[in-house]
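Structure, all two chains, one model.
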Amino acid sequence: MSGAQPVCLPVGGCLPLAELPRLDYERFSRLLREAVQGGARVVSYFARPETDGLTLYAVLLADGDGRIALLRTTLGESFSSLSPELPQLQLFEREIAEQYGVRPEGHPWLKPVRFHAGWTGAPDVWQREAGRHPLVGDMAYYRVAGDEIHEVAVGPVHAGVIEPGHFRFQCHGEEVLHLEISLGYQHRAIEKILRGGPHPATVYQMETAAGDTTIGHTWAYAQLLESLAGVQVPQRAQVIRAIGLELERLANHVGDVGALAGDVGFLPTSSFCGRLRGDYLNLSAEICGSRFGRGLVRPGGVSFDLEDARIATLQQRLKVLEPETCGAIDLCFDSPSVLARFEGIGTVSAQDATALGLVGVAARACGLARDLRQHLVPAVWTAAFAQPVLEEDGDVYARGNVRRREIVASLALLGYFLDQLPAGDTRVPVRELAADSLAVSCCEGWRGEVVHAAITDRDGRIDRYKIVDPSFHNWSGLALALRGQQISDFPLCNKSFNLSYCGFDL
Amino acid sequence: MLGRIVLHLLVLLILSPLLPGVIAKTKALFAGRIGAPLLQPYYDLARLMRKEFIFSRTTTWVFLAGPVVGLVVPLLAAQLMPFGGLGASLSFRGDLVLFVYLFGLARFFTAASALDTGSSFEGMGAVREVTFSCLAEPTLLFALLVLACGADSLTLNDLLGPALAGRWHSGQAASLALIAVCLFVVVLVENSRIPFDDPNTHLELTMIHEVMVLDHSGPAFGLVLYGAAMKLLVLGALLVRLVLPLQTGHVLLDLLLLVAGLVGLAVLIGVVESTMARLRLPRVPQVLVGTTLLSAFALVLVLR
């Protein structure tokens, strides 16, 4: 209880709040800084009003050892911002400022994140009118001045059927000097709705936190409840969850490679991958009746079993899909005219990626071994998962190639899981949640890590629920990747990240 | 002469929407899809023409002038061009210069109507279109000069007349082959095809030609599409005539030959679009400077 070291927890673990020492802010920030210098990164950072005042929680994870470190401190009306030293905290601090009206002093980029009214009724940091919903996107954008500078505004309504987001480009001719991204159009206040939960509707809300990461978010949510309830999920259910997760990864990665090809006008791969994506979605539907995996993962296990006949169907269909997928994708990656468009575009350096705390595909494309499947709790991964797929260059090609290689790896994983499905139950009941406890759960969704954290009150109800979608970290990476690029390459860079708007907006 | 004018107009008005249809069908087959019907562009035009005109309050008459001029220009330019074996209906000394700059006029009005909307996208597209066309223009002029040197005339009718077939068997064959390649590039650039532009993309930031007509809708957009199809036919006819300079003397057979050549060109464009990715935008001027040099070299070969 001395607080000389952060309190550690295995991934997917649970801790009584009383065991987490309350540090003063100075010591908190020193430990945080040391941990990050030691190679850890902040995976979640959130505040909660408590009797002692607004309490700030930091959840850190060191890649490679799979242990989660926790810190907590109490905040006053303002606190000194850590973002100048640790840029990966900049969005988290802005978020806390927006939710609780506390000002991170010295924050270099203090702007609203999701444009909602404060949660506690405290005065707004930006002096926006109280009691009314703020206008989304209403903030001071970064401007570049000069005769030959022009500004291009894109969105929030786009030409394609995509989510709303606003992009401001400061351009010199065709060159982008700066891109600022403003989101928040799809804010649904999921975290706020969850207070006092879990409610009957909660699991459906989790499935749609980011609709394309249904399995990822529901897995993290289920794992969180299981660790709070102290329930062990049967092996068979874990493997079925893993099958669902890999199918989700395959469908999205295949769709992304096709979309990348479509953006550079390379039609064959674009068309074939569009069709193949549908085939993978149909495999999910084969398991649980929903192409997006809705209804599959539930706290305590899964709600659909895989009979031998269905396993055989899946194996048979995968056998046909595998060569088709590899053929369609190789066609694109073997075309010089496509490579000329992918290589050297939208580069993010490993240094910037580390500083911004990028995760998932975008991080692995910069050579950072950030893949939570290395140390997820279920033992299914340790047996089957070999190595994260890494690329060094950090450009569009690297992000595309990470996806291409992960598709191959996922197909192998799926084959293994379908072969080795252990016998047993698929679901156990989840009853009372531990009171006054903190739990953190993680899942490597197709886009990157999904981290959920929850604190229960003294009745074992959820008092604070925190969701971190990979997009939350990675949007800043996209903004950075556009510096000095051609504005005509923006759609391609954007597609290579393919981030979620609603996963960010929550 | 009146008969010729009518025949040229009929060919242009009736056949032109077929070409985008053929291109789309070729691309669909390459992608393993069935694709839209061959006659889809006709249906699209009919649908657009039935809609009402909608104009933004911030636009002026210039906004409509773009589509109208874009439609009239190919109609005029077609009269100067021999369509395959069918001679030009209007012909005078130096008409090739008029031919080239009629398209310049259309471009001026399209760009002006894009700027008229005040949208940042459309302005960006206008800048790109004008830049790339500037660079494509010398290629077209050099190519016509090569033909003019051989024919010893300055009318398109003579340039592409019956004598053209004989020149393929003379020492000029190399030059003609070079300008045929250059003209193919010009056809792709001027008609905003891959690898220079992507007519099917929905991404405003990458568009060149399409972004200039984003605000046009209904019949105005129909005029834009119709004009574009006719432009493709007129420029395509130039290339087809150069590569297939056969002449039977029979009007119907000549017409058939022209149509076969145009459909062949459309298929070729479809194949190029299916097998290539788009060029990066900064590469487009480099390619166009390259074709200019190539066509200049063809001229040197003829003059030496």
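Residues 2-303 of chain B form one domain.
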